[in-house]
Structures are given as C-alpha cells and as structure tokens.
Design a protein that fits this description.
By secondary structure, the protein is of the alpha/beta class. Helices cover 36% and strands 17% of the residues. The model has no long low-confidence stretch (mean pLDDT 94).
C-alpha cells in the first residue's frame, strides 16, 4: 500500500538551549486514532524507523497512528551541544519532546503513546517513573533491558571495551568501528559502565530508576526479536515485569526471519508485529 502522507521536520529547543530534531509522519486518511512519540536505540538515530512506504512509521500511518520520531541530543538531526549523559536524555530531551508533540498534536501529554527502542525504552521508563515527563496513555518497550551487574563473559568483554575506548577517545567510536551510525558520548558510556559493573540502575545523583519503575501502571507492550543477543526476549520481559501495569509480549521472528536488535524495525518482514504495535497504541 502506497501512502501519500509526507514527513514534516520540526526543530525544538530543550530547557538548556540544546536544539533537538523531531520528524512527524501523519496518519493516513485524516484524523489520527492515536499519536505516538518514537525514540531510538544507542549508536543510532531515529532514521531506521523511516523506510518510505514499507517502513515502521508507514505501518503506523496506515493504521491511523500519527508518529513523531525524536533524535536524542548528539544524534541525527539533533547534533550539537555538550556531550550527553543518560540523565540529559531523561530530564531534558524527553521532557521537551513530550511537551512539544502534545502541543502540536493538540492533545494532553498524558494522551500520547510512547515507543522506546532499547535506549529509548530506558529513557522513557526512567523519565515517566521519576516525573521528568507525564506518563503516556500506552507504552511500548522494544528490545529494552538494562545491563546491571553483568556476568556473561561476552557482556563483560563488551563493557570492558566500552570503558577503555571511551576513556581513551572521549566517546565510543561506533561509526569508525562500523557498529552504528552515531558515537555514544563519554558521559553516557560512563553511565553504561557504572550500571553494568554495579548493583543498580540509577541516575548520576543516585536516584534508583528501577525502584521508581514499580510505580508505573501504564498498559505496556513488550516487543522482542527472537535472536537479539543484546536484549534476549526473556530479559526484555523481565525488565518490563518490574513495572506496575498490565503487560503483553510480542515475539518477532520465525519462518526464516530471525530479527536482531535493529532489524526489529528496519526489516519489512516484521510488518505483522508493527501492525500489532499500531493496534495496541490505537486501542481505546
């Protein structure tokens, strides 16, 4: 199905003056059934949500869902500003995006849907649980878990490499290593390492995000790729189980299609799962 709806690029300013990029894709056929903010994974921008008429945002539009995809500071259309830590995404980027999307869509912030992929899921849970932004009407957590106290040898090797390289060059050089389109900045890399080697998922000031997450009672859909080593389905479900609201899980894969962390949203063969997400967001 070809869609005539065009995207709209919007520039907004966070409370600290950093300029952020948002891209809107309207719902097909008139008034939207729902409005959703989309946030991306680390080492990436939000571009992978958009693949013309066979991508994720097109599937949402066809189902009547208006989407707004955010690039976190330093990524994609939001390049510029000082190197960011995780708390900057939570307190500044999320808060600014929720307020602006709600204003432009003409709805209350609490009527928005929110889809967070990996890093975006962590930002959403941390922000909504601690009051940095109003809780959405519906929450989708895609391939979302937090690495805390990692034990697997492979994961510990990844953490050690992140720590060493980010201290040497001030960032994780994902583009040079061809493992991503964006370089995670040094402050965020240090947050990641702190969680992975410590007992808690917390803010730099010591706010316990995992404990706060238990107060989130929003209906939540968990999306997980069957062969995602970065966030296995069992870990995605375990992370979401710490929230206090009703939950469902969609496993993506099978019949010759085994999506990993990013093909969850970049491969059109996942369209059936994308339609499930759209239906969940649009439910009354």
């Amino acid at each position: 199905m070809r869609l005539a709806s065009a995207t709209e690029e919007v520039s907004i300013v966070a409370a600290d003056g950093v300029r952020l990029g948002l891209v809107r894709r309207p719902a097909a056929g008139g008034s939207p059934r729902a409005v959703c903010l989309l946030t991306h994974a680390m080492m990436a921008s939000s571009r992978y949500f958009e693949r013309g008429d066979d991508g994720f945002t097109a599937a949402l539009a066809a189902a009547g869902v208006e989407s707004w995809r955010l690039d976190f500071r330093g990524c994609g259309a939001s390049r510029g500003g000082p190197a960011a830590g995780f708390d900057d995404y939570v307190r500044l980027d999320l808060a600014a995006a929720v307020a602006e999307v709600a204003r432009r869509a003409g709805v209350a912030p609490g009527q928005l849907g929110y889809l967070g992929h990996s890093l975006g899921g962590l930002v959403g849970v941390a922000g909504f649980a601690t009051g940095a932004a109003p809780t959405p009407r519906r929450l989708v957590l895609a391939a979302t878990q937090v690495w805390v106290g990692v034990r697997r040898l492979r994961d510990r090797a990844v953490v050690a490499t992140w720590d060493l390289v980010s201290r040497l060059v001030g960032r994780v050089p994902a583009r040079a290593l061809r493992i991503g389109s964006e370089d995670p900045p040094g402050p965020y890399a240090r947050d990641f390492v702190r969680w992975a080697r410590g007992p808690r998922w917390d803010s730099a000031a010591g706010v316990d995000y995992r404990a706060a997450a238990g107060g989130l009672t929003v209906p939540t859909l968990v999306l997980a790729g069957t062969t995602d080593w970065m966030c296995p389905p069992a870990e995605a479900a375990r992370f979401a189980a710490a929230l206090g609201g009703p939950q469902g899980t969609v496993l993506v894969g099978g019949a010759g299609f085994s999506p990993d962390h990013f093909t969850l949203f970049s491969d059109p063969r996942a369209v059936a799962a994308w339609r499930r997400v759209a239906g969940f967001l649009a439910e009354a």
